[in-house]
Amino acid sequence: MKTWARFTETGASKGTVAETFTFAENPAALFPPEWVWVEAPAETVQGSTFGGKVWKHPAPASEGETPAPEPTYRLKLTPSEFRNAFSAFEEVAISDFAAARPGDDDASLTTLRKVVGVFFDRVRDRHLTEVDLGDPRNIAGLDLLVSVELLTKDRRDAIARGLPAS
Q1: Which of 43, 63, 80, 98 lies 20 to 30 angstroms, CA to CA, from 129?
Q2: Residue 26 burial by CB count (10 A; 0-12/13-18/19+): exposed, middle or buried?
């Protein structure tokens, strides 16, 4: 039997093993087609990393030592909590981008400016009671901010993670 590893797909943890599977051959046919499996050393566990050439494995917990639990995050935020996830500089850049009306914009850039404005104006609506980061529309809005270079991918991932659960 061989050990196979599937990696997380986004953010700073890219290249981190999400799970392992022991099987005689590549198990790709047993899982959704977007899951990519890589043959891995037998000692590979969830949390191991692979940089393309070198595998790194987390140190095993000492006997009697319990590993620290992974932090949990809330995905449902108040509009204020969501807005506060952005730095003041990011919020100004977003507002400026949405408000700019330079004469040399092509139609697609004009549309992008309007969509960014609509996305951010929604979280200012006084009737809104929560922003659900599990809602694909909100993630698409964050992805749009990355595509127009108003957020970095790392900042998008940090905001999309939500807030630590208390």
Answers
A1: 98
A2: middle
Token reading at 35: 């899951």
Pairing between β-strand 37-40 and β-strand 2-7 as defined by DSSP bridges: antiparallel
How would DSSP label each residue in 19-74?
A: EEEEESS-GGGGS-TT--EEEE-TT--TT-EE-SS-EE-PPPPPTTPPPPPPP-EE
How far, CA to CA in Å, does 165 sit from each of 21, 30, 87, 151? 30, 34, 21, 24
Backbone angles phi, psi at 12, to 5 degrees: -65, -20
Structure tokens at 153: 């991918």
Phi then psi dihedrals of residue 18, to 5 deg: -85, -35
pLDDT at 25: 87
What's the pLDDT score for residue 102? 64
Contacts 24+ apart (CB under 8 A), 35-43: 35/6, 36/6, 36/7, 37/4, 37/5, 37/6, 38/4, 38/5, 38/6, 38/7, 39/2, 39/3, 39/4, 39/5, 40/3, 40/4, 40/5, 41/3, 42/3
